[in-house]
Specification:
Length: about 350
């Protein structure tokens, strides 16, 4: 017997026909993803907020991005989990719009943060002498403001003004919409606009910047190797600094790569779906959305693997040392740069 999401048969969406075993497995997996996302990003937020040594320009951007990822796990993933497993939306049309807007906003905010982080790393690695002049605290907070405000205006404006339906209203209401659904729908025009704004343009800027950082850092490494035999003490100091900056750039490059791998399939399918007459199965879209959400889960793992300060901060948090007097002034690394 077919199960429906709503009691009005003619307009109701159809529930999935999965067994209880499959549902329990999916719920367990998604709850694990949500909890890992929340705990990992909360540790990043607490670490950077608490320890004064971590109050650097790059870390404030990472801190803001961790808040984005934490909010995604807190405000978006739980409702998406129920929708994905049950294939029904039980929370009303108004909350559907709010949920979809927050989802788009936070997903877009992640790549905006990563774009600004790439700019920050460019000046740190390629123009270190003028880094503190160009990347001041006021500049960082302006980057953070733009990373939150532009995606918020874009997402809520797109959904609440129903610009995403523009040009395809008849197709949506006659062939796709049903009572008890909360699916993300784009027309051809709005789909291309969302793809370009939220993904393609900032991602392209990121890739170009990191490509340039990679070759400049390589040149620095060669220069240090060639001259170190004549200026051992000075070049050792410079070499350590350069290696630290290259490591930071490499780590943040990996964070960017994880983002692209996680979100690229979803954005490509989203922009292609209107041109394929909306033939991409909803189950595939749901899968790709969760694959994108995994980006927010992986980011703290990247920090834990590459950054010793993160592992030390984690240990202090777990042992409760952050509650000790003057714990915020504890040194997590020897130099002034993580």
């Amino acid at each position: 017997m077919t199960s429906l999401c709503h009691n009005i048969i003619n307009i109701s969406c159809v529930k999935n026909s999965w067994s209880n075993g499959v549902r329990i497995s999916l719920y367990s997996l998604m709850i694990l993803i949500i909890l890992t996302t929340l705990v990992g990003n909360l540790i990043v937020i607490i670490s950077i907020s608490h320890f004064k040594q971590l109050h650097t320009p790059t870390n404030w951007l990472i801190h803001s991005m961790a808040i984005v990822d934490f909010m995604l796990g807190c405000l978006v993933m739980p409702y998406s989990m129920v929708r994905s497993v049950e294939h029904c939306w039980h929370y009303g049309e108004v909350f559907c719009k709010i949920h979809t807007s927050i989802d788009i906003m936070l997903s877009s905010a992640s790549i905006f943060h990563l774009s600004f982080i790439s700019i920050d790393r460019y000046y740190a690695v390629c123009d270190p002498l003028r880094y503190k002049v160009k990347i001041k605290r006021s500049v960082i907070f302006m980057m953070i403001f733009v990373s939150w405000s532009v995606p918020a205006l874009f997402a809520f404006g797109m959904i609440f003004l129903e610009l995403n339906f523009k040009g395809s209203e008849e197709m949506y209401y006659k062939h796709i919409h049903c009572k008890g659904s909360c699916s993300l729908f784009f027309s051809k025009t709005s789909g291309v606009l969302a793809f370009m704004t939220s993904f393609y343009i900032p991602a392209s800027v990121m890739v170009c910047i990191y490509y340039r950082i990679y070759f400049i850092a390589k040149g620095h490494a060669r220069l240090i190797d060639d001259t170190s035999q004549f200026h051992i003490s000075l070049e050792e100091t410079n070499g350590i600094s350069r290696r630290r900056e290259r490591k930071a750039a490499k780590t943040l490059g990996i964070v960017m790569g994880v983002f692209l791998i996680c979100w690229c399939p979803f954005f490509v399918c989203t922009v292609m779906d209107p041109f394929l007459d909306y033939t991409i199965p909803p189950a595939l879209n749901d899968t790709l959305i969760w694959f994108g959400y995994l980006n927010s889960t992986f980011n703290p793992m990247v920090y834990a693997f590459f950054y010793p300060w993160f592992r030390r901060a984690l240990k202090m948090i777990l042992l409760g040392k952050i509650f000790q007097k003057d714990s915020s002034r504890l040194k997590l690394f020897l130099d002034s740069n993580p």
